[in-house]
Design a protein that fits this description.
Helix content is 42%, strand content 10%. The protein contains 3 helices and 5 strands; from the N terminus they run H-E-E-E-H-E-E-H. The chain is mainly alpha-helical and 190 residues long.
């Protein structure tokens, strides 16, 4: 008969998982320092209020305190004086680009696209105005020629224009020509 294996208590599995999580979090932390009686594990540097003697581990596995940055003597640009003779020259801090080149390129491309779209829209409007002006001028010339004109009413019947209808049509055509035959009206704030 097979021998039964004693079952493990149910508290062991969560405890083992907890230890594994703690070990993983400790291993991934780059900084370790003491705050009072407890140790703090973090991937960011400790606050400035933590003294160097309490920092137990630094990024890259170093546990020794990092040297404090040397004080830089201000160089006089007016007199051309440099730092003292015994001082080692300090490397200039790398300058971060003030403008993101990719962002500027996208912004410029967007502005160019918008300008091209606006120009195309202005050309379309100008062409529509020109066509409307030409049609109104042609209709006005026909109206002024004295030729009998006919229109179609709502029932689809043909009606000859009387003097009242001709005057109303002449006024309408004048309004169309006034709006479309002159220079393009300015749009936007002035």
């Amino acid at each position: 008969m097979p021998q039964k294996r004693p079952s493990t208590p149910s508290w062991r599995a969560p405890l083992a998982a907890g230890f594994l999580l703690l070990a993983c979090s400790i291993a991934s932390a780059q900084w370790v320092w003491k705050e009072g009686d407890r140790k703090v594990f973090s991937d960011t540097a400790p606050p400035a209020s933590v003294p160097d003697k309490n920092i137990l581990k630094r990024p890259g596995g170093g546990s020794a305190p990092m040297p404090a940055p040397a004080a830089v003597a201000p160089a006089s640009t007016e007199t051309g004086a440099a730092s003292p003779a015994g001082a080692a020259p300090q490397a200039a801090a790398p300058q971060l680009p003030t403008v993101d080149k990719e962002l500027e390129a996208k912004k410029k491309q967007t502005e160019q696209t918008e300008a091209a779209r606006q120009k195309a829209e202005e050309q379309r409007v100008a062409q529509a105005r020109t066509e409307s002006c030409n049609r109104a001028k042609q209709a006005r010339a026909t109206l002024d020629s004295g030729v009998r004109l006919a229109t179609t009413n709502a029932k689809g019947e043909r009606e000859i224009m009387d003097d009242k209808a001709r005057t109303a049509e002449a006024k309408r055509l004048d309004d169309v020509m006034r709006g479309n035959c002159g220079p393009m009206p300015k749009s936007g704030p002035q």
